[in-house]
Each structure stands twice: as C-alpha cells, then as structure tokens.
Amino acid sequence: MKRIEELYQPVERPIKIVQFGEGNFLRAFVDYMTDVANALGVFNGNIAVVKPIPFGSLERFQKQKNLYTVSLRGRKNGEAYVENRVITSISRCVDCYEDFASFLELARLDSLEFVVSNTTEAGIAYDPSDRFDMAPQSSYPGKLTRFLYERFHTFSGSAEKGLVILPVELIENNGRKLKECVLQYAAQWELKPEFKDWLQNSCVFCSTLVDRIVTGYPKGEAEQICEKLGYQDELLDTAEPFGLWVIEGPKDISERLPFPKAGLPVVFTENQKPYRERKVRILNGAHTATVLAGYLMGRNIVRECMHDPLIRKFMEQVVLEEIVPTVKLPHEEAVAFAQSVFERFDNPFVDHALLSISLNSVSKWKARILPTFKDQYRAAGKPPKLLTFSFAALMAFYQSDEWKEHALIGRRNGESYEIHDDESVLNFFRCNSRKPVNEFVRAFASETSFWGENLTEYNRFEEMVCGYLSDILEKGMAKAMEHVLSSEG
Q: Is residue 476 domain-shared with residue 390, that is, in the same domain?
C-alpha cells in the first residue's frame, strides 16, 4: 500500500498561523478548520507548528510532508456519518528546543496574523525561573513573550504587525490569563515600555471555548481505516463531527478569520460566558446527572445509556426540563444544543466509559449541577426532583468502606469497581457509609468543604434525598429511577 505523501502533495500558502502544540486536538480542530476554509476560498493561509515541549518527535510530520488525515465519525441528523479529509494546511514544523533560531524566524514572518495554542491546562502558568536569554524558555507564556518581542523588534513596534492570540487550553478566561503571564514576563525581564504598550494596544488576547471529542490515532482500527483510505497514514486523527469554537474578542477579528463563511462552527462574541455555561450545564451536567445511575443499572459506556429507554428518558427529562431553562441563551439555541448532545452521546465510534466519567464526581456535581439546582430552586421554591435524584445516585455509587490502593471499592451485582476522588471525599465515605440513611445524607449534604455551603438548608432537599437513596438501596436503581420519573416531585 502506498503512503499518504506519495498520493497527495502539500499546498503552498502564506503562513498566517503559528501553532504551539502538535497534538491530536489541534490537528482535528484548528488545522482541520483552516484546511476547509482554504479549500472553500475564504482563507488563504497555512500553519507553522511549534513543538512546545522538550520530549516527543516531529519525525512523522517530516516523513509525511506534514500531510495527514482527519476522520470525523459519529452521527449527523440521526444517521451514521464519516468524513475523511487529507489536511494540507501545515507548512512547517519546528522544534524550538533543537532549532531555536527557526522558532524566532517564524516571529519575523510578514504574513503572520495569529497564534494558537493547546499546551494543556497547566501550560498557561508563570514560571519565575524563565529568563529572556534562555533558548527556549521553559513555560509556554515565556516562549510566547520572547516570540512576541522578536516580532516587535523586527517590525519596529508597528501596530499593524500585532498578533491575535487564540489559546484553546481548557481553562476559564484563558486569553486573559495568558496575557497576564506575558505582561508579567515583560516586567520581570525589564523589556521596553514601548513593547508593553504594543502588547496592550496592538496584540489581541482572546479567551476561547472549544468543544469537540478527539479520539486521536485509532490503534485498534488504523489498519482497517487505512485499507479503506487506500494509503498508510501514521498521523491519522479521529474525532466526532460536532465542533464548536467560541472566540471572545472585538468584532474585526471575524473579518481576519472568516471561518463562519466556510460553514464552520465558529462563533465570535463579546461574551463567551453563556456558551461556556451552556456546555458545562448541558453536556457536562448530563454526564454528571446520569452516568452514576446508569453504571449501577449495569451499563458501562455512554452509548449503552442512550440505548436504554429508561436511562435515556431520565437524561432527556433532566436536561430539557431542569437544565435547559436555566441557560442564559435563547431557549431554541439551548434546546438545539441539548439535542446535539444526545446525538453525540450516541456516537457509534466512541466507547466512552462511565467509570472514567465517574472520576471526582463530588467536585463535578458542585461545578456542573449545583448552580443549575440553585437556579431551579429559586425559580420554583423547591428542589428539582431529577437533579436531587442524581445526588442520591452519587451517594449510592460512592457508598463503601472497602479500601484498596488509593481507591474505594464499590460493588455492582457482586462485581467490584474502583471509586476515585480527592482523599477527603474518599475518607468521608469510608467513615460514613454504614450509618443509617438519614444520618448519612445529613452528613454528606451538610459537608460545607464539599459544597461551599450547607445543602440541608434548602427546604425539603434532605428529605427528598433520603427518600430517593432509600428507594435505590431497597428496590434497585432501575425501580427507583422509574419511581422518580413518574412522581410529582
């Protein structure tokens, strides 16, 4: 079988984007979108990739002339969907540890307009040991500051040569936090005041929100997929069809990055908070409200939950009736997003394990469910029954005093499973799981270190949780779920 670089050729275009990170996510998200926009004639620009960490290799990129395939697999409009696309949008890959000169050379490109990064959530952090004369600096913000100073110096501080910075790291206000780090380095290194003014006035640091499940290189299926493609591809990258990129910044950015004109799911806004809230409350909230109960009902992956009529009914009701009304976007938008979430959860190509989603469920309930719970409580004057049931399901899942190597051991139909969370959470359940239900619930709901408040102060909450947990323990999760769905609340 031939290789991808024997059948396809790179396409030369001006480099407009420097990308810190060569990982699966950026390649199936930003690089894919850039390629689509190029092909449809709304953007004419390629990407230079910078490997921002000292380990790893760019050998496969060099071997394949920076060509690779993105395979989007999932459901669209209820039907199975597969799209395979050869990506030609990467012009160059640079290892800034082995070739720092080439890294700085990118900063001097006249055509450059954007910097994109995905250096993990820990990547946007200030390291006071970074120095200007290091080659390179250890932190990503340190490298970026040096890169931006090189550009400032090359073009004599021209306002027209400022860059748009688009971090996609999964932290809130990622653009603002990255800018704070860069300004901190500019001060620490005592760089020219004119450079600090250029950063403030000529560069734009956007906070962004991204959403796409990227499953990367499909080890078990790669040979079969390559047979269908008709070529070998060592950089094959798989992902779901759904995508969303919300970019918070001034309006003129959309003119410089006109991806929506190519039909791409990019939203430019002056406030990304409602979109972040929508994702956390609906997508993440649907997981947290449902999967622990689903696991105790014998399901192991998300797709199995979607094919179980009872669990699916519970998920749809909790999302559409209790979560969606609290999202601060037009109702139709929130409902459409919820429907897309149900379709994504039913992806036939992704086996998303419930136990992996179960990690740190106590803090997840606080972040993903509690704000919605409180909004519903304020609106109705009583606890929302299905979100309250999810609290009881969490307790049932965690209820154990059996300990083994940093994990609690739960039991499902005689089989064991591991429960992983912060040590304080696990210790709580070790010490309280054998108490009578009413004492157990009161202790958990009133533990302010978990919730930031005493949940027993919400009228009827404690009583409802006790009833739901008793039902689960006495009748089983399925019967308890049937009962709560049919009850008045």
A: yes
Instruction: Find out whether 296 and 393 touch, Cβ atoms under 8 Å.
Output: yes
Note down the domain range covering 437: 273-486
Residue 412 has phi, psi (to 5 degrees) of -130, 110
Burial 439-468 (b: 16+ CB within 10 A, else e): ebbbebbebeebbeeebbebeebbebbbbb
What is the total count of domains within the chain? 2
pLDDT in tens, 110-136: 999 999 999 876 789 999 999 999 999
CATH number of the domain enclosing 18: 3.40.50.720
Q: How far apart are CA 357 and CA 342, in angstroms?
A: 16
Domain check: are 242 and 330 in the same one? no
Same domain, yes or no, for 264 and 287? no
What's the confidence (pLDDT) of residue 489?
Answer: 66
DSSP per residue over 151-220, as a string? HHHHTTT-GGG--EEEE--SSTTHHHHHHHHHHHHHHHTT--HHHHHHHHHT-EE-EEEEE--EEES-TT
